[in-house]
Amino acid sequence: MSALPQHLDLHLIRILYLLLVEKNVSRVALKLNQPQPSISASLRKLRELTGDPLLVRGARGMVPTQHGESLLAPAKRILDETESLFLKKAPFVPQEEARTFHVAAPDYLDSQFLPNLVALLRRSSPSSRLKIHSLGAGVDYVRLLSDGGMDLVIANWDEPPEHLHMSKLFEDPIVCVMRADCPYALRTDSNKMTLNDYLALPHVAPTQILPGYQGVIDDYLDRQGLQRNVVVESAYFGLIPNMLAQTDLVLTTGSQFVRHYEKQMNLKKYAVPVKFPAMRFYQLWHERVHQAPEHKWLREQVAAAAKALTQN
Question: What pLDDT shows up at residue 1?
Fold first, then answer.
């Protein structure tokens, strides 16, 4: 059995296919806009490679040999499969598609953000599935994005990993909140909290998301040479408002997170006597899904949900 040629020319396979279909060198030359001697030379090369005449004279012109006819189907398959490699990505049609998306997010987002996103996806692509994953301590989101275990991560970082794609969703000003009838709130106006008061009050804070990273609040305070009095750390951020409602604890977080609970739980909001930068929430994704139409669509839906949030 002879070895396959090392550099099989795709153009030569196209000429082979057309010769077997047209059975005429001149017509193939016209179709490919090439001179006839060039097609004749290609036929000679094909005969040499296959060890077969491929086309022979018949009663009404050229006809394929038996071996030539057997090459017609595989030649067409190669051309079809090669063409499919370079087809433009098909657009994502959300109403017709059924995809599964994996999104990771912390539970300290605005309480309406993820529900609004879910509602948006359900309306736009009802056959698709969305799996929302927690983003807590020990979750290696960089590896998950890289390996395909996660499609998108939504959270706030001072400095997200540089090799990931990122777009900003919204900013949330930092505020301080506590129970409206706790002793400190009863005696202090919401604009009169001093720095000493702020640092000394009993704080509740979320558990570290990443080992060695203390979070945007404490990281900023540390850079200013300040330290607050954190007496409770909770991995369940969504339960912290309930903790505030029953204790003298103080929470520092984004204004949008607070607004859902403020009236419902009789909480009092304070201007923080520290110039914290606003919390900036981003969506992050990996290069492997950057050009995929369905992932572009997903990111557009996330951006739309964030835009609607800031307009309320």
Answer: 40
